[in-house]
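Request: Could I get any protein with tokenized structure?
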Amino acid sequence: MKKFFLLLVAICISCNNLNDNKLQEESYSLINYVIKTELNDQDKGYISEELLDSNPSQSLKLFIQENLNEKDSTFINSQILNRVTFRLDQDKVSIKKVLLRSDLDNLIKPGERSISFWSRFESKYNEKDFSTISQPIFNKSLDLAIISFGHHCGSLCGGGSTAIYEKKNGKWKKVKTISTWVS
């Protein structure tokens, strides 16, 4: 009986690792697609993690409610509420250089104007802009995802979106833009 229990635990752990690997594979498949199709204005440059808001916008809530079944809605909402710290892996990101969010945060000095941040950023990285991308949030079958991304280029310069992507026949395609921002 003890051997059977240990075998059952080993199988469960193996399945979780397989699911985690598949989730990571699909995450970087979508991240690299978005970099190439949405953030392609700069072949080089930096990309950092964007934090997806734990309180989804009304338009995102409405999309989930109107377009997803209860199982997918629950799965997506669980990911939004239970996110862990997301870190981009340079070995899995194509084209751009990964810039840790903590490195960006270290350039911010409380009480200073944002122009000081941009001056320090340009001095340190010899670049005038960077992109951000969030960890994708998937449905249960990993063929529909929500992702946020943006381009930042100064105090009053930049823009971004939160969008829904669907994977059909092995290829990602944007199906809806949920929200956008411009500075």
User: Anything to note?
Assistant: DSSP finds five helices and seven strands in the chain.
